[in-house]
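In the design runs reported in the main text, the only information available to the sequence generator was the tokenized backbone. The following block is the verbatim input for one such run; it is reproduced so that readers can re-run the procedure and compare outputs position by position.
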């Protein structure tokens, strides 16, 4: 395949806009696939009688693929170009999705983990290719806009995934059918709208006092959107709470079990004794992944059909520095640790959310309804992306990161000390404050690292492997606490506490110039 340099690329055409629209669906696709793991954890835990630690091996398999394939993916992209790399990635994802029904027929849980590892490998290559491609399909001055728009579709995928996945995988079979969760309510739109309106009014008043209405209006709207979302979330969760508020569980962590290599399964053995119900649940899991394979396959066909339109974008022929070169920079290492604990904390919360919300000490919902509510966690991140974009125009990234990480830590602490609707609201509200962490940590690190930008970026992407490890630690804590999930929130609490320290250090550190490096659009 003959590549041209970006400098000599032809001007963007209508064809480039069509190509960008197709590429944007890729962001939706991997966001959708990644968030499907959250309801899958509850499904396999019930169907295979697993402990929390064993069920969370799903996240370990998925995110380990990032660490294993990040560097090979960059090599593949440089050799094959965008179109072939993306089609190849989607083909790998189709293969992985098809391994799932084969594994359930064989009643082989490790096969499910292998399938997720394979899909994760495809997603890694997809991200490596799609991020710079989205940035290059159009005028250079609008590259950041295109990435932000693509990231919004990625966030939309993370909201849709739990809704659809929980509806199919956590309904019928060994799970009790539910139906109280109607997330698309008019009340949500009204509260969000009122928040934005009041925010605009407040922003206009402050702007008038400071003679900068144009600057303060977006800031007011952003704060109003965040307040409106939290108000809706609080009222909505309060309406789902049991009539009699559950007392805070008496937690005792068995540290000998935490460090033991043997699992102590307590959860769902009675339910899986009925082979008919179990087969129905496994069939529901198969249906989701067969549909996912078809979705990936259709995307691959469309990308192949428009491959000629991707010729306007070229893979950079510039030498990419090794991530190991970044180890010489203190800030590159600190940033990688920051990405590690952020991704691990966010994924740990999302992974345990379904079982947490269904528990008697929280909302006592059916597992299906609890699984659909996980969409609120990721929807908070979507709201936060819009609000955070406006806030970052007025507030330095390091200061905003201090506030958001401190609030996330406070919410996790609230979960560990409370029960019922209060704990449920606090857990779901963390999603809003997760929203700006990934791009903020990434850019703050690039501005302060003395290593080449490409080396720093590579090391930061490797830090995503935190999503493989910290959820296992959180699951181990839940198992050692006798299946009570509240103490598991100490794991993300510590993670967000470390991020507060990172943000404070960043606010005081010297800023260097950033070379050409594209911030990834999610994980």
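Verbatim output:
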């Amino acid at each position: 395949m003959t590549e041209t340099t970006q400098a000599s690329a032809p001007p963007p055409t209508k064809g480039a806009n069509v190509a960008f629209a197709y590429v944007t669906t890729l962001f939706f696709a991997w966001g959708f696939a990644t968030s499907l793991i959250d309801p899958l954890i509850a499904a396999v835990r019930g169907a295979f009688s697993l402990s929390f630690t064993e069920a969370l091996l799903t996240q370990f398999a998925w995110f380990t693929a990032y660490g294993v394939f990040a560097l090979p993916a960059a090599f593949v992209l440089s050799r094959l170009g965008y179109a072939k790399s993306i089609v190849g990635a989607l083909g790998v994802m189709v293969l992985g999705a098809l391994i799932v029904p084969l594994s359930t027929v064989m009643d082989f849980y490790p096969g499910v983990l292998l399938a997720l590892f394979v899909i994760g490998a495809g997603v890694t290559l997809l991200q490596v290719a799609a991020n710079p491609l989205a940035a290059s399909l159009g005028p250079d001055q609008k590259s950041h806009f295109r990435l932000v728009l693509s990231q919004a579709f990625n966030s939309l995928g993370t909201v849709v995934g739990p809704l659809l996945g929980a509806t199919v995988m956590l309904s019928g079979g060994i799970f009790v059918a539910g139906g109280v969760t109607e997330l698309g309510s008019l009340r949500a739109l009204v509260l969000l709208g009122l928040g934005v309106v009041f925010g605009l009014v407040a922003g206009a008043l402050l702007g008038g006092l400071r003679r900068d209405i144009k600057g303060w209006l977006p800031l007011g709207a952003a704060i109003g959107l965040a307040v409106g979302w939290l108000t809706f979330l609080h009222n909505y969760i309060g309406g789902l709470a049991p009539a009699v508020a559950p007392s805070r569980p008496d937690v005792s962590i068995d540290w000998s079990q935490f460090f033991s290599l043997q699992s102590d399964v307590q959860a769902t053995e009675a339910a899986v004794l009925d082979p008919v119900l179990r087969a129905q649940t496994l069939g529901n899991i198969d249906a989701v992944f067969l549909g996912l394979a078809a979705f990936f396959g259709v995307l691959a066909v469309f990308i192949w059909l428009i491959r000629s339109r991707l010729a306007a974008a070229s893979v950079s022929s510039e030498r990419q520095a090794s991530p190991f070169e970044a180890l010489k920079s203190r800030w590159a290492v600190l940033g990688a640790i920051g990405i590690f604990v952020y991704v691990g904390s966010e994924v740990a919360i999302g992974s345990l959310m379904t079982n947490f919300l269904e528990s008697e000490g929280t909302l006592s919902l059916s597992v299906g309804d609890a699984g659909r509510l996980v969409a609120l966690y990721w929807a908070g991140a979507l709201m936060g992306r819009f609000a955070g974009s406006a806030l970052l125009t007025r507030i330095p990234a390091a200061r905003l990161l201090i506030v958001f990480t401190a609030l996330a830590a406070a919410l996790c602490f609230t979960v560990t000390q409370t029960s019922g609707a209060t704990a449920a609201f606090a857990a779901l509200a963390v999603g809003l404050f997760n929203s700006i962490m990934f791009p903020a940590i990434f850019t703050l690190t690039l501005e302060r690292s003395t290593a080449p930008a490409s080396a720093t970026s590579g090391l930061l992407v490797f830090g995503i492997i935190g999503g493989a490890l910290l959820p296992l630690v959180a699951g181990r804590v839940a198992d050692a606490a006798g299946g009570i999930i509240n103490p598991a929130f100490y794991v993300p609490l510590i993670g967000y506490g470390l991020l507060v320290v990172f943000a404070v250090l960043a606010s005081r550190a010297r800023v260097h110039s950033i070379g050409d490096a594209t911030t990834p659009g999610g994980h």
